[in-house]
């Protein structure tokens, strides 16, 4: 029996953490989130932060100061996950599992832009735990420890990353249910016999809830070119749609939905001890208040095929260096390349952009920023949160 590599959605990067955090922009939401996250269990200590305080100083009200960098790793473990009971099912992955999804969220120091970077699980020739190891896959870092995953991303991006978390399968189902499902556009029908439940979706607008959302986000054989890179692109489509729903669909003004989101996130995210602090979560949330959808960019870390191992990928050094420089410059990023492998533009989308609060954005100090925009090389794929895109099915999948 074929066991696909399970994948945890990018949804849990912003929906499981960032989207849950931004619910605290109102007093009612802040109280809801604060009460929920007060029950967060003890966090995971990031060993590379020796000597650091458990929670960097954060104001009780108002946004956190400076840039924010968070790594979330999606574990493929079946341990304690709904629907995985038999020895055969648990044999696929148990315990800590592998980080088959790893996302970095970077919020600029002036809180006017954010970038989400997806790291392919099959990456090799990377600084694993800060050391040069030729053919160890990126998704083995979590089995070593969350600190290893964070340290590897730090070495690849040049950023200091004080916050991190681990997410498991149950988060996808819980979060999609909490927001009443996520409506995505399918340019073609999508079928995937390897997911559970199996996918057999017609073209058009489809609202995905619960286990069907999980299957959609885990699908590799059914989307794009059938690769993990296509799957990353599919997740970006889902998260963009979810982000638009949260911003424009009244989610932030619905206390019941906010409670559901917060509870779903806390139940399925194991935070680092630097993040397992209600005041820190709320202060990060407030840093995202008023962030324009066009300033949220999803990118895939640039890779090319490994000549020695066709089923593995290696960093494209030039584009990777450009991405690293852009992140370190802390400026808004613009994409010049194509959409991801599973994405096409939604030809039927309304062209009027979904707007966040009007007026010029301001920094935490109240000053109006005038940031320049850094254009990434065309070899880097991705999309903005305000772009309406559709998933295209894998045409050769039968």
Helix content: 25-40%
CATH class reads Alpha Beta
Going by CATH, the architecture would be 3-Layer(aba) Sandwich
End-to-end C-alpha gap: 17 Å
For the report, how would you describe the main beta sheet?
Answer: 7 strands, mixed
Enter the CATH topology name.
Aminopeptidase
Say how many strands there are.
19
Average pLDDT rating? 78
Question: Judging from the principal axes of the Cα atoms, what is the shape?
Answer: globular
Helices, by number, come to 11
Describe the protein's architecture and organization.
This protein has 398 residues and is α+β, with helices and mostly antiparallel strands. It has a single domain, classed as 3-Layer(aba) Sandwich (Aminopeptidase). It is 30% helix and 19% strand. It is built from 11 helices and 19 strands. The strands form 6 sheets. It has a 7-stranded mixed β-sheet with strand order 11-6-1-2-3-12-18, sandwiched between helices. A hairpin with a 6-residue loop joins strand 2 and strand 3. Helix 1 packs parallel to helix 8, helix 1 (11-21) packs across helix 9 (255-268) and helix 2 (27-37) runs antiparallel to helix 10 (278-287). Mean pLDDT is 78; it is low at 1-29 and 352-370.
Give the topology.
Elements: H1 11-21, H2 27-37, E1 68-75, H3 87-91, E2 99-107, E3 114-119, E4 126-128, E5 131-133, H4 141-144, H5 146-157, E6 163-167, H6 170-178, E7 182-186, E8 190-192, E9 199-201, E10 204-208, H7 210-218, H8 228-248, H9 255-268, E11 269-271, H10 278-287, E12 296-300, E13 303-305, E14 313-315, H11 317-329, E15 333-334, E16 343-345, E17 374-375, E18 382-384, E19 389-391
Parallel strand pairs: 1-6, 3-12, 7-19, 15-17
Antiparallel strand pairs: 1-2, 2-3, 4-5, 6-11, 7-10, 8-9, 12-18, 13-14, 16-19
Helix pairs in contact: 1-8, 1-9, 1-10, 2-9, 2-10, 6-7, 6-9
């Amino acid at each position: 029996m074929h066991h696909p590599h399970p994948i945890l959605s990018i949804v849990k990067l912003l929906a499981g953490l960032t989207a849950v955090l931004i619910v605290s922009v109102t007093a009612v939401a802040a109280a809801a989130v604060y009460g929920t996250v007060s029950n967060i269990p003890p966090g995971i200590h990031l060993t590379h932060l020796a000597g650091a305080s458990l929670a960097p100083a954060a104001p009780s009200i108002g946004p956190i100061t400076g840039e924010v960098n968070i790594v979330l790793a999606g574990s493929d473990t079946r341990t304690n996950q709904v629907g995985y009971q038999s020895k055969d099912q648990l044999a696929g992955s148990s315990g800590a599992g592998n980080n088959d999804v790893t996302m970095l969220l970077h919020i600029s120091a002036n809180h006017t832009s954010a970038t989400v970077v997806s790291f392919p699980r099959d990456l090799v020739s990377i600084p694993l735990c800060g050391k040069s190891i030729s053919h160890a896959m990126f998704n083995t870092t979590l089995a070593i420890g969350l600190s290893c995953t964070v340290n590897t991303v730090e070495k690849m991006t040049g950023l200091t990353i004080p916050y991190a978390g681990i997410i498991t399968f149950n988060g996808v189902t819980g979060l999609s249910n909490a927001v009443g499902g996520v409506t995505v556009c399918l340019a073609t029908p999508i079928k995937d016999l390897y997911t559970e439940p199996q996918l057999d979706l017609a073209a058009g607008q489809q609202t995905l809830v619960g286990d069907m959302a999980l299957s959609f986000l885990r699908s590799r054989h059914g989307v794009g070119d059938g690769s993990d890179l296509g799957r990353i692109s599919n997740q970006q489509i889902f998260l963009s749609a979810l982000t638009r729903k949260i911003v424009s669909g009244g989610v932030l003004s619905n206390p019941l939905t906010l409670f559901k989101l917060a509870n779903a996130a806390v139940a399925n995210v194991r935070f680092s001890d630097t993040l397992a602090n209600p005041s820190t979560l709320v202060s990060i949330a407030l840093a995202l208040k008023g962030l324009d959808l066009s300033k949220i960019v999803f990118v895939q870390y640039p890779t090319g095929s490994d000549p020695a191992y066709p089923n593995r990928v290696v960093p494209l050094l030039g584009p990777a260096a450009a991405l690293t420089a852009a992140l370190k410059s802390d400026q808004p990023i613009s994409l010049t390349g194509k959409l991801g492998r599973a994405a096409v533009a939604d030809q039927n989308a309304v062209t009027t952009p979904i707007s966040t609060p009007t007026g010029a954005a301001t920094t935490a100090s109240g000053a109006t920023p005038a940031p320049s925009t850094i254009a990434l090389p065309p070899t880097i794929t991705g999309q903005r949160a305000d772009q309406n895109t559709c998933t295209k099915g894998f045409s050769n999948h039968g």
